Amino acid sequence: MVDRLVNSEANARRIAMVESCFGSSGQPLGVPGRVLVGEGVLTKMCRKKPKARQFFLFNDILVYGNIVINKKKYNKQHIIPLEEVKLESLEDDGQFRNGWLIRTASKSFAVYAATSTEKQEWMAHINKCIEDLLRKSGKKAVKVHAAVWVPDSEAAVCMHCKKTQFTVLNRRHHCRKCGAVVCGPCSNKRFLLPSQSSKPLRVCLNCYDTLSRARVQQNNMGNPTDLSLSKEAKERSGSGDSSGEEDSDDEDEANRSQQDTSAHDESSWECGEQSPRGWRPLRATVS
């Protein structure tokens, strides 16, 4: 079904509609061969608390953003190339149910669907798009993925020294290598992680020691670590997803017109107008 939609007017209209929902803050999404497969609201586990985010699945990228106006306007657009994505199912844990990890080279995070059926459908659609994309492009799946950040609420004390309690003065920091929540002194080292940024990133002391030993070992073996960035890595680092001190996707909008919509809304097409003819919810778009 995806191949049949590539050059259709309905597909071009839907992609243009998604672009308009992000306004001038978003990047253009209409490129030759791109198809909008489906969309819906998922709960994204951010560093401070879970938040509703609007996700759009294309046959080559996954796009998500903050909901500013209920199912009509979004901002803070994030674009993830599907060739980098690896999914991992999560076991249900208390209030957090129907979740899975979205792992990429530059950023990894957990999302949750409203029901187990929606979880299965989302994962099946994303994996099918990844499989088709890799098969057609001849590329290989990315093997190294960024760590999932431990939520702030799960660490009352530093996960490295086990002593420092977090307060207004003692801020929480995240190691970009392992994702642990650590205090400032336990994360005062930086190391270049080319898949995440062109600049050295904050890492905990454990990871710094491990990374440093690995670099020395490679140098001794006559195979020095290549600290230069590939074109793809530079493009990924330019997105700003994980190279900064804060998770930009985690910040609240000061001037929201409405509250974020619930993550339990139906995954159907709503972007400022009635559902276009022939369009179906996410679960019905891929055969």
Structure, explained:
It is a single chain. With 287 residues, this protein is an alpha+beta fold. Helices cover 22% and strands 21% of the residues. It has five helices and eleven strands; from the N terminus they run ααβββββββαββββαα. It has helices spanning 2-5, 9-22, 116-137, 205-220, 231-237, and strands spanning 36-45, 50-58, 61-69, 73-81, 86-89, 99-103, 108-112, 173-174, 181-182, 189-191, 201-203. The chain has a seven-stranded antiparallel beta sheet. A two-stranded antiparallel ribbon has the order 8-9. The longest helix is centred in the middle third of the chain and has 22 residues, at 116-137. The radius of gyration is 20 Å and the shape is globular.
What structural class is derived from the secondary structure elements?
alpha+beta
Please work out how many helical segments DSSP would assign: 5
What's the multimeric state? single chain
Strand order of the largest sheet: 4-3-2-1-7-6-5
User: Which percent range describes the beta-strand content?
Assistant: 15-25%
**Any low-confidence stretches, pLDDT <50, length ≥5?**
225-287
Q: What is the N-to-C order of secondary-structure elements (H for helix, E for strand)?
A: HHEEEEEEEHEEEEHH
